[in-house]
Write a structure and sequence with these properties.
alpha+beta; 4-stranded antiparallel β-sheet; 5 helices; 58% helix; elongated
Length: 173
């Protein structure tokens, strides 16, 4: 925000508000990157080990197979995005597709020896998913991102209203 000359055309109090908001956004962005690139993948690996007793080597994948209008389909929801949105992967698929039936999970975990561990056990996957959510809710950086997300959005809307008011006010007759 400070890169534009109009930044200096507003009073100091409003500039301080913009500066504070900019700093919070920067801290939030860094935290979001840390959560998506480091924390959530580690949470997933730990939960795999605890639930399935398997050491995941690489990125795990999840395939959800389902029928829609008597045709077979499959999709691979991103586990990290599902965790961020607090949406079970199966629910994610069911929400985004109409007339879905027989949705089944196939959880694939690459192992150290080159083999792939498969699990289609929904109860075991739900146990894994619940553990991921618990670990996410216990992590301080994750909690910060979740809490700050709504606060920043609300503050951005308020700042936008204030900017619009500052623009419209001088032009009122």
């Amino acid at each position: 925000m400070q890169d534009d000359h109009r930044y200096f055309m507003v009073d100091e109090k409003f500039r301080a508000k913009l500066d504070n908001f900019d700093e919070r956004i920067e801290k939030y962005d860094l935290s979001v990157n840390e959560v998506t690139r480091e924390i959530l993948p580690e949470i997933i690996k730990e939960a795999i080990k605890e639930t399935f007793n398997v050491e995941a080597l690489k990125q795990v994948s999840l395939e959800v197979k389902y029928k829609q209008k008597n045709r077979n389909f499959s999709t691979s929801p991103n586990l990290i995005q599902c965790l961020i949105s607090a949406t079970h992967p199966k629910d994610h698929v069911l929400k985004s597709k109409a007339n879905v039936s027989n949705a089944q999970l196939d959880f694939k975990i690459p192992k150290r020896n080159g083999e792939v561990f498969h699990s289609t056990n929904l109860d075991k996957f739900n146990e894994f998913w619940s553990l991921c959510e618990t670990k996410l809710n216990e992590n301080e950086t994750c909690k910060f991102v979740i809490e700050e997300d709504e606060k920043l959005l609300t503050e951005a809307r308020n700042i936008k209203k204030e900017i619009v008011k500052r623009i419209e006010e001088p032009w009122k007759i």
